[in-house]
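Hello forum,

I keep getting stuck at the same step: I have a sequence, I want structure tokens, and every attempt I make locally crashes halfway through. Rather than fight my setup again tonight, could one of you with a working pipeline run this one for me? It's a single chain of 103 residues.
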Amino acid sequence: MSESPGMRAYLIFTGTGPILVLTTFASLTDERFVGKLRYKGITKFIAYEVSLQAVRERYPGGYPNVAGDLEGVEDVRVLDFNGHQIMANFSLEELGEPIKVGG
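Reply #2:
Ran it on my machine without issues. Output:
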């Protein structure tokens, strides 16, 4: 499987808990990306980019399928929505600067 160029992974803290997403959008502030989250009821969030290599290593079963689904398209896919599992897989020290959307 060849990975889409520009693929990124983000840990997004929403009102209902964290989700881990893969996206080929260039920016989390892209209105198309924000619109997709808004459609799912997520109007405000704080996100952190996480290492794609770390995601690949920590999700060896799900990563190839989700990444493959993004081949050749500009979109977003949820890789994990289990907050306990996400927090066990990533330390807070791994997170960079927050990206805040929604005021």
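The longest strand covers residues 8-14. If your local run keeps crashing, start a new thread with the error log.
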